Amino acid sequence: MRLLEYQAKELFSEFGIKTPRGISSNDVEAARKHAQELGFPFVIKAQVPVGGRGKAGGIQKCHNQDEFELKYPQILGMSIKGEKTRAILLEKMAEYEKEIYLSLFLNRSKRCYTIIASAEGGVEIESVKNQVIREVGLGDVDPKVAEDVAKQIGLEGRSAEDFVDMLQRLSKLTIEKEAELAEINPVALLKDGSLLALDGKVITDDNSNFRHPEMAKYQEKTELEERAEKSGFTLVELDGNIAVVGNGAGLVMSTLDMLADNGGKPACFLDVGGGATTESVYEALTLISKMKKVKAILVNLYGGIVKTTTVASAFIKAYDDKLIDLPVYARLMGSESEKSKEMLKGTKTKMFDSVEDAINGVVMEVSKRG
Amino acid sequence: MADIYEILRGRKDQSGNYEKVPVIVQGITGTFGSLHAKSMMDYGTNIAAGVTPGKGGQKFEDKVPIYNTVKEAVDATGSKISIVFVPAKFFLDAAKEALEAGIKLLVAIPEHVPIRDTMQILGVAQQKDAIIIGPNTPGVMIPGLTKIGIMPASPFKPGNIAVLSKSGTLLYEISNTLTKAGYGQLITIGIGGDPVNGTRLIDAFDMVKGDPTLEGMVIVGEIGGDSEEILAQHIIDTNFKKPIVAYIAGRRAPKEKRMGHAGAIVMGNYGSAESKISMFNKANIPVAKRPNEVAMLLAGKLEKSKD
User: Fold this and answer.
1) Residue B7 dihedral angles phi and psi, to the nearest 5°
2) What's the pLDDT tens digit per position in A68-82?
3) Which of A8, A208, A290, B57 has a CA between 20 and 30 Å from the CA of residue A342?
């Protein structure tokens, strides 16, 4: 689960990591009151689950009421890299001397947590220079290690003490909330030498959600994604008009790649899981029927033990029930494929032996319809 | 590191065939476990015992004895291999029990195991010099000898190509095209689609590379993490010369979205297909654009290696 900045900062506060005073909202009425409470000036920050919002104009200073009335609705209505603004954080500005980078990050290849710190923060991690990197096993940070990192990035006195404290609190958060990443970028070094978390990014392990009912309030899923999950599917909604369905994440990604290579625009990634039954395919079609933008469906099922006839009957049932009226281009690998082709004659579903042929067919169909 | 061929193959009998080593199935009475236990038995895998707490003394399919604990099953069968079908939230306990009972190869089928649990069990595996394949793996197979996993049998045929894959269905799909093109498989290992793998691509590579009958390798990767890049660098560093072909799924996936597998996510440039493809190219490993291209590229590589 990827937390928004204000959610990450709620966790920071819970674990005793200092953040600037701020209030989140998603309507202008409430925000007007918050603006009075905070007092001008402050920063208006778009809450989106994607990086690079500063450059996209999603973070703006606000000095007075007029600016507020102009900027708040504008930022709330903004989309950044295809992600709509979910909420707005109004936050007091801090005067600081310096920006530092700090994160605890799950290094997948080394299979351990890693501290990354740098005296030069405030830019994306790829551009962070002079990184100090320390491997810390399951995420527990020994005070000596923290002190050493503080020294290596040139902190002294109160700043070093604050850094050691901050890093240990971040470590506690990472372990207790089962985070894959807990990043503070930048950490502001204030005039008095103390440290403040100006931004926050926390990604937790979805597979550990069952152990964290307290995090459920941060879960953000569309109605369709929720329904897909209940059926054991994975759904990722995309911008195009051809729904891509298959069994197994790798196979669906591969199908999506080939479709896009051929000029098709995927409307979604829908993985119905390992098996494919009449019920699961029917449920997949039900989900797709709710996506208005879809003009055609591309199905790629690899079933070593699946009878293609069971899948074919799901299409027929979906047409009979008037669930869908869309053309389906399907590659069904499995037994009894001739019989399935026979069953599907006269319907809008065409069956192909290769996924390449199915893709060519669906791309032509959609371009024909315009 | 424990030798995976040795664990999977056992001894040769007088006529030169490998003896079928015994395998334990944890969670043999569950819907999924029993379905695949049956399928493995049909393939010829020596399923010697099952484990389901509370069902000790019963028999699976009228012949496989069921025990309450892995220890009892190991004591009775001498098995070093276990395949685990328990729900993700019980995986850590089941896996610990298996390693403590002396299991040396643990095939971890469950999807959705928390990363922290995987990391914890890896610590135990290291102490015990045991191999964990998965979690979220389709399993491991030596076609013609043993199938320890949930893969269908039909795509695979005995041969001399090793296939290592993060994805299950792409492993079947690509093995099928290899088989059709006349390239059977020496061994196939599903790494699993999780962010943290018991056996990483580089580990799997090191496990399989030494067999003298190995003629070539196919690596099926996908977006997320950097295990493909690390493997490519390792291949360069070790000057491995046998033909290798790769395929990477997810070239067209949007960034910062999890594409079905917990591990299939691009963060910035970390985990991107471009990064993986360029590293494979640097290692002189061609990367297929479509699964169907793999066999053709491999044929080209094998042809050249004869010169």
Assistant:
1) -65, -40
2) 999 999 999 999 988
3) A290
B4-133 adopts what CATH topology?
Answer: Rossmann fold (3.40.50)
Residue from A109, A229, A333 whose CB has the most chain B CBs within 10 Å, to mutate? A109
The verdict on a CB contact (< 8 Å) between B150 and A269 is: no
Are the beta carbons of A257 and B258 separated by less than 8 Å? Answer: no
Check if A248 contacts B (Cβ < 8 Å): yes
A6 is an active site residue: no
- List of residues 6+ apart from A207 with CB closer than 8 A: B88, B112, B113, B114, B115, B262
Q: Which residue has the tokens 């390792």?
A: B234
Q: φ, ψ for residue B6 (rounded to 5)?
A: -60, -40
* B122 touches A at CB < 8 Å: yes
pLDDT (tens digit per residue) in B89-131: 999 999 999 999 999 999 999 999 999 999 999 999 999 999 9
Q: Where in chain B is the domain with CATH 3.40.50.261?
A: 154-306
Q: What is the C-alpha end-to-end distance of chain A, expressed in Å?
A: 37
In 3D space, the residue among A215, A179, A220, A219 whose CA is nearest the CA of residue A200 turns out to be: A179
Per DSSP, the residues of B225-262 read SSHHHHHHHHHHHHT--S-EEEEEE-TTPPTT---SST
Tell me the C-alpha distance between A51 and A185, whole Å.
Answer: 11
* DSSP-assigned letters across all residues of A63-107: -SHHHHHHHHHHHHT-EETTEE--EEEEEE---EEEEEEEEEEEE
Tokens of B296: 């053709």
Task: Tell me whether A127 touches chain B (CB under 8 Å).
Answer: no
CB A271 within 8 Å of CB B260:
yes
What Å distances lie between residue B201 and B29, B132, B188, B191, B210, CA to CA? Answer: 32, 13, 12, 7, 15
Alpha-helical (H) ranges within chain A are: 5-14, 28-38, 65-76, 143-152, 157-177, 223-230, 249-261, 278-289, 308-320, 337-344, 355-369
| pLDDT for B41 | 98
As a CATH number, domain B154-306 is: 3.40.50.261
Query: Could you give the CA distance from residue B43 to residue B169 in angstroms, rounded to a whole number?
Result: 19
Q: Which residue segments constitute the domains of chain A, with CATH numbers given?
A: 21-92 (3.30.1490.20), 96-215 (3.30.470.20), 223-369 (3.40.50.261)
Asked if A180 and A103 touch (Cβ cutoff 8 Å), the reply is: no
Q: Is A346 on the interface with B (CB under 8 A)?
A: no
pLDDT of residue A311: 84
Q: What angle do CA A338, A342, A348 make, to 5 degrees?
A: 120
- Cβ–Cβ of B114/A238 closer than 8 Å? no
Which of A51, A138, A269 shows the shortest C-beta gap to B119? A138
Q: How many CB pairs under 8 A join A and B?
A: 155
Residue A58 at interface with chain B, using a CB cutoff of 8 Å = no
Sites in chain A below the pLDDT cut of 50: none
Rounded Cα–Cα distance for residues A285 and A319 (Å)? 10
With contact defined as beta carbons under 8 Å apart, do A190 and A92 qualify? Answer: no
Please list every residue in chain B whose beta carbon sits closer than 8 Å to the beta carbon of residue A208: 114-116
How far is residue B17's CA from residue A185's CA, in Å, rounded to a whole number? 60
How many angstroms separate the CA atoms of B193 and B135, rounded?
Answer: 8
Q: Are the beta carbons of B208 and B8 closer than 8 angstroms? A: no
Task: State the pLDDT at residue B306.
Answer: 78
Interatomic CA distance for residues A292 and A290, integer angstroms: 6
Which one, of B152, B187, B140, B141, lies nearest residue B35 by Cα? B152
Q: Taking CB atoms and an 8 Å limit, are B260 and A269 in contact across chains?
A: yes
**Residue range(s) of every CATH 3.40.50.720 domain in chain B:** 4-133
